[in-house]
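WARN retry 2 of 3 for item q-0093 after timeout on previous attempt; input resubmitted unchanged.
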Amino acid sequence: MKYYLDTAIWRDYYENRSDKYRPLGDWALELIKNMIDDGDFVLYSEFVLKELKIKYTKKEIEDILNIVNEKDLLIKVDVSETQIKEAVTLSKQRKIAFGDALHAILARDNNAILISRDKHYLELLDIVDCRKPEDLI
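OK item q-0093 returned
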């Protein structure tokens, strides 16, 4: 299987975030460990890196990605101009963030399940299979 993790899931894991009632970081970590144990591919993109760079240093981003210690399972997917244009159009049509649209398109085009907890992805279920970490652990 292939899974594309959006930026928030990486942050949940790294910061061990939680909300009022849910251990988001624990769930993200457990899901990532399960993926590695199962030999699943964990996908990310330059756009994920761009979003992570807002908050983290290059070293911290390396630390985040190093959770996937089997490097053949960690795959950086390319972002094309066509995908960017489609994401711009989709974000305008459905009134969602450009990044959400782009993550969905990248997951779809790489035959991956999108892992996110963003409610905007409910607008994109016709484009990509989207799941929350707790749905898969």
